[in-house]
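Input record (one chain):
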Amino acid sequence: MPKVMMGIIKVCFGLLLSLLMACEPGGEKPPAAPHEIYAEPGNQMVTVQWSPVAGAANNTYYLYWSNTPAVTPKNGTRVIVTALNYSHEGLSNGKSYYYIVTAQAVFGEGRSSKVVAATPQPPPQKPQGLKAVPGNRSAILSWSAVANAKSYNLYMATEANLSPQNYKKLLGGMKFSGVESPYEQTGLSNGTTYYFVIVAVSSSGESESSTSISVRPMSIISVKAGVSHTCALLENGSLWCWGSNGVGQLGYGTKSSHMFAPQQIDFATDWQEIALGAYHTCALKNDGSLWCWGQHTEGQLGIGTTVTLFAPMLVDNTTQWKNIYAGAYHTCALKKDESLWCWGYNGDGQLGNDDMKDMQSIPVPISGTAAWR
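The corresponding structure, as predicted from the sequence alone:
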């Protein structure tokens, strides 16, 4: 009799187990492990996301986390989640956290996902060196790169005291996301003052804002180009140059390989006219003085030597110059008395002074002329 009862019990138990397994979503198989799981670090937080799993009861998942890479359902701290993401907050920046996720079925827990890790970080440092170069209905902005920044957000307004928090309240307030240095802001109005700040962006959020700067777009009076450098004269008398600076042709006072954004020359606003040779630059000021800089191997700067100059230097110590012109390696200028003077390379007679010398390092008058108009 006991043997018969044991047999009946085994059969009933088997039938009950089969019935329970048949009722479980997915049959006998537990839910699959969540895939496409990743962890994104933030400021004192980590956000974990994963793809949905078929058979997860009521979209329920178990997230396990630990400070060690070998996290499992047995040793991890469990969090019940009814979504496809979880924001783990209140963490320590600079410390790594490890995560796995399982799907919870009606009658049990699914397999574990792969382990993902993230290290919370504070927001990036605020950008430094924000500069703005005015243009015709535009401005070119540049700034120094920030470590760990994924992109930058630019804020603009036509009122002062601009910040990322108040830009919407200011006249002309706008935000431009995902910009990179240098950045050209177009569609501006000449004569209007614009204010800008820049912030660095990472998964931890925005940095503090840079120092605010202002710029007033204006018309470009003249643009001239050498072999590998360019200069522009603006209506306010400021002079801006950019490009190659291997021989000081940009006039910034130092030698550098390149300048990828325009930079103001000498911070002066009394420039009147510019001329560019192959690797040298000359410009007139409103007072009639003439200044040159850059390559001087052929005397094209007109200063009496052949020493290359990295900053503007006065030519001939007079204020009688009216117009300036430049060839590749020589320069000519017209004085207010209409006399014409040239200097620099003369291998093909381009100075016109009836002299066979290959070069002249100071201005010399054109032979046989009294006035040029």
